[in-house]
Design a protein that fits this description.
Radius of gyration of chain A: 29 Å
Strand order of the largest sheet of chain A: 1-2-11-3-4-9-10
Oligomer: heterodimer
Largest sheet of chain A: 7 strands, antiparallel
Order of helices and strands of chain B: HHHEEHEEEE
Shape of chain B: elongated
Strand content of chain B: 35-45%
Helix content of chain A: 25-40%
Number of strands of chain B: 6
Radius of gyration of chain B: 20 Å
Strand order of the largest sheet of chain B: 2-1-6-5-4-3
Order of helices and strands of chain A: HHHEEEEEEEEEEE
Structural class of chain B: alpha+beta
Largest interface: A-B, 27 and 24 residues
Distance between the termini of chain A: 72 Å
Number of strands of chain A: 11
Chain lengths: 186, 167
């Protein structure tokens, strides 16, 4: 019996021991010393990511030229749906508007606030009779829009690309309940 | 397994099968199939010419009521009648080099008599021009569906102006 044990012990080589140690270190690195805790952390990470990127910070890929040069076609941004939890949208905010749901969103900039009188003359936006400072507009086409008076929960939203013909640019009034959140870009 | 357990299991299985059957044949699922079929017909990878376009568009007839009215919004007017809608679809198939049509964020409300339903959805059209450049247009659309001879058909549709034009 002792001889058998000796032969068994002798059959375990140095490389076997080395491989087992490497495997153990790798396993420890990936799974950790407590697999249950690692699994719980992984699950929490997945659930947290689903909640954050599904409902709080919605990743959106912009399509189209209407927000040039501020946003490029195909650029990824995040929509912060909690941005207006305790405050209201402000003039100059880039916001996302919902259609039937949140699978597709319009991205525009708020130019007119509720109650404002807004008109556009030769490409220049006038709010309540005063010229609106728009440093984000690179070039202006000669747009003309008669004065509109916004209602209590209406906002006027326009894209930053004023160089394009007005008839090709989707812009206009939207109700507050259409605004999903504020766009975060980097 | 005791007799009580067997009975419970049997009831569970029968209930599950009944539920699956009801879900499979529910008006909502049938309406979603109609929209999916319309999207499939209108989606194409290459221009569809002549008779092929007419033939493909003709496949849409079964999904629209004969007196359907589709208000497409500015600058286009209303399309009245199934033949007009099918002809417009044939033109789109012919002139758009490639297009993918999708109905997303679909909300369906079936009336109490289960003979009509209202559908609120976003229609996304991704078109590719001859240079390979993609452009996307998305509109919110509200449709009325009617159950005709056991099949759901689109009886009316209108584009919802998310951004109400001021010009």
């Amino acid at each position: 019996m002792a001889d058998t044990s000796a032969r068994t012990a002798a059959s375990v080589t140095t490389s076997d021991v080395s491989r087992r140690r490497t495997s153990s270190r790798y396993r420890s690195f990936v799974i950790g010393s407590r697999p249950g805790r690692t699994l719980a952390r992984a699950l929490a990470l997945v659930i947290g990511s689903v909640i954050v990127f599904g409902y709080v910070l919605i990743p959106v890929r912009g399509e189209g030229p209407s927000m040039h040069p501020t946003l490029r076609d195909g650029q990824f941004v995040l929509v912060n749906t909690f941005a207006y939890w305790r405050s209201e949208p402000s003039r100059g905010d880039i916001v996302a508007l919902s259609l039937a749901g949140r699978h597709v969103l319009y991205i525009k900039r708020i130019v007119g606030m509720p109650g404002d009188r807004v008109r556009i003359a030769a490409g220049t936006v006038y709010v309540n009779g005063a010229v609106l400072d728009e440093p984000y507009v690179a070039r202006r086409n000669r747009w003309n829009v008669d004065e509109v008076v916004l209602e209590a929960d209406e906002y006027l939203l326009i894209g930053d690309n004023r160089a394009m013909p007005m008839r090709l640019h989707d812009f206009g009034k939207a109700r507050r309940n259409r605004i999903v959140g504020r766009v975060i870009r980097w | 397994m005791s007799r009580l357990s067997r009975g419970g299991l049997l009831i569970g299985v029968v209930s599950a099968l009944a539920g699956a059957y009801l879900w499979w044949n529910s008006p909502e699922r049938q309406i979603r199939r109609v929209l999916a079929n319309v999207a499939d017909i209108m989606s194409h990878d290459a221009p569809v010419q002549g008779l092929a376009a007419a033939s493909a568009a003709a496949g849409l007839q079964q999904y629209f009521a004969t007196d359907v009215v589709i208000e497409t919004g500015r600058p286009f007017g209303a399309l009245t009648g199934r033949d007009t809608v099918v002809a417009a679809a044939a033109r789109v198939l012919t002139f758009a080099p490639a297009m993918r049509l999708e109905f997303v964020d679909t909300k369906i409300a079936v009336a109490g008599d289960r003979q009509s339903a209202s559908v609120d959805c976003t229609v996304m059209a991704t078109a590719t021009d001859q240079a390979g450049q993609e452009s996307v247009d998305a509109r919110e659309v509200i449709m009325t569906m009617a159950l005709v001879n056991g099949n759901w058909v689109i009886s009316s549709g209108r584009v919802v102006e998310v951004l109400e034009p001021v010009s």
